[in-house]
Amino acid sequence: MLKLRLSKEADRFLQKIPAKHGKQIAERILALQENPSALATEDVKGYPPFRRLKSGEYRVIYFIADETLNVTLIGKRNDDEIYRQIERMRR
Hints:
Elements: E1 3-6, H1 8-16, H2 19-34, E2 41-43, E3 51-55, E4 58-65, E5 68-76, H3 81-90
Parallel strand pairs: 1-5
Antiparallel strand pairs: 2-3, 3-4, 4-5
């Protein structure tokens, strides 16, 4: 099982959304932590080493390094803001 590291941004986002949605996202993250290949995920094109996980209407952006699941961002799937945030993080 991987260690879990949740960024401040991801934690803040989880605090703002409805509890039902937060619970669903948390369950998906914990499943990913347990077995990273168990869920359907994709590379974020143009932003290695980031990967994305879909959870309902939300997208979880993460990467795995040194036996740690690093959840970097969580955002709406129909909103390109999450990709703008990735771009800002890379600068």
